[in-house]
Amino acid sequence: MKVKYEILQLKDSEENRYKRFFDSKDLPNGIDDVKAENYRKVYENEIDTEAVDLNDKTAILNTLESLFTEFNTKEKPHDYVGHSLSVSDIIILSPKDSGISRGYYCEGIGFTTLSENSLFINEWKNNKIRENSNEVDKLQLDEIEKDI
User: Fold this and answer.
1) Least enclosed by CB within 10 Å: which of 28, 54, 86, 119?
2) Dihedral (Cα; 49, 55, 57, 59), 10-degree rounding
3) What are phi and psi of 15, to 5 degrees?
4) Do the Cβ atoms of 85 and 76 come closer than 8 Å?
5) How many domains does the chain divide into?
6) Is the pLDDT of residue 137 over 50?
7) Residue 85, pLDDT score
8) What dihedral angle (degrees, nearest 10) is formed by the CA atoms of 108, 42, 78, 76?
9) Which class for 90: exposed (0-12), middle (13-18), buried (19 or more C-beta within 10 A)?
10) What is the rounded distance in angstroms from the CA atom of residue 123 to the CA atom of residue 127?
């Protein structure tokens, strides 16, 4: 089975300055302070997980640790636009064609799960939908401007 993964990192802003590289427990409101609007996608790709059951916590942890290692020790893909994977970054795993997305907040040690029904995941999906519709609007506007 193919699983899409996205790597999200905090946007550069004054508001995020005091959230970057913090464990969720060190944020004033804990994991509730983790808002989709504060993040940007720095990379996405797919991994083949034939041998991985995404309902198995150990398998998920192994997948996350593998991605963490890949984006910290190996040469990063040419289209990766972020810093090395670190605390406060989020990895979203989405089994292809399932409609399910699970987010994982990188902690100093391990990950905190953001369930598929969490506020963060719902906000992220809504932002992606909005971004996609904005891209369509921009393409349509570009076409209109070409005609003028």
Assistant:
1) 28
2) -20
3) -60, -40
4) no
5) 1
6) no
7) 93
8) 10
9) buried
10) 6
